[in-house]
Amino acid sequence: MADARVNIDVPRSDQSTYWGRAAHFAITTNPLNLFATPAALNHSKDIVTRYRKGEDVGLSEDELWKQKQLYDSAFHPDTGEKTIWFGRMSAQVPMNMSITGAMMTFYKTTPQVVFWQWFNQSFNAVVNYSNRSGSVEISKTTLATSYCAATGGALVTALSLNALVKNMNPIIGRFVPFVAVGSANSINLPMMRRLELTDGIEMSTEDGAIVGHSQVAAKEGITKVILSRISMAVPTMLGIPFIMNHLEKKGTLAKYPRIAAPIQIGLCGLILTFSTPLCCAIFEQRASIAVSSCEEAIQKAVEAMPEPKPTLLYYNKGL
What we know:
Number of helices: 13
Radius of gyration: 22 Å
Number of strands: 4
Number of domains: 2
Low-confidence stretches: none
Oligomer: single chain
Strand order of the largest sheet: 1-2
Helix content: 55-70%
Order of helices and strands: HHHHHHHHHEEHHHEHE
């Protein structure tokens, strides 16, 4: 049994280092967590809740962390609500490998583009809601408008670019889904989390004392998430087209047309297994921002605090 209390409210690995964050997200995005039964998930929540109250849960430190990591894979860190299975970070690799592989295979005709861009944005809307920052409730109107705007943006981008590149080198056309996905992410995330942009994101000191809400930090956090999401798509959506173009030139795809989708989905799965945790780790989850960069109201709130006054404040940037 662990004698000393363990701070399970911070990841086990050092989050101040890139590889520490990568190790944390490798566990968080592990698809095997999807196979945990509802009973196992509820048990992990019970263990975490009781331990936070100071109870002795009768587990070793390693066993405690195993339960906390299972809890993190399914429950929102701020609200404590269980997220729908395909909105969890552990579903990112299997869902994205299927959707990305399909988008990269079926991108030439209008019906194909419309269906797969719509499907992708439907999935993204669930992921963005499930992994939003803080306990801010997102209204049905916000959900609907952000979903429609992102889907519309992705469709307009994909269909317009498909028309422009029709007579260009075939490999150019294979990059269209990536541009559409990047554009949609840049629309979907800010709209889905627009309450954070208008009302601000919750700010706290290093020891957790709430200072106020900052719009500046919200903009910074959402920008970081967008960059991480786009970076995650780069190895698959910009790398795989070269492989497929090579197979097309050799005549392999013409001879065996049915292997195109399985090859791309398989390659996406292989790459995303590594790129998902590595790109999630680019920025710290508990992000920091200088007090001097925040709004005047935040600065005044810090000025009113007793010495020593913090120079940095922290917020959950979301995923």
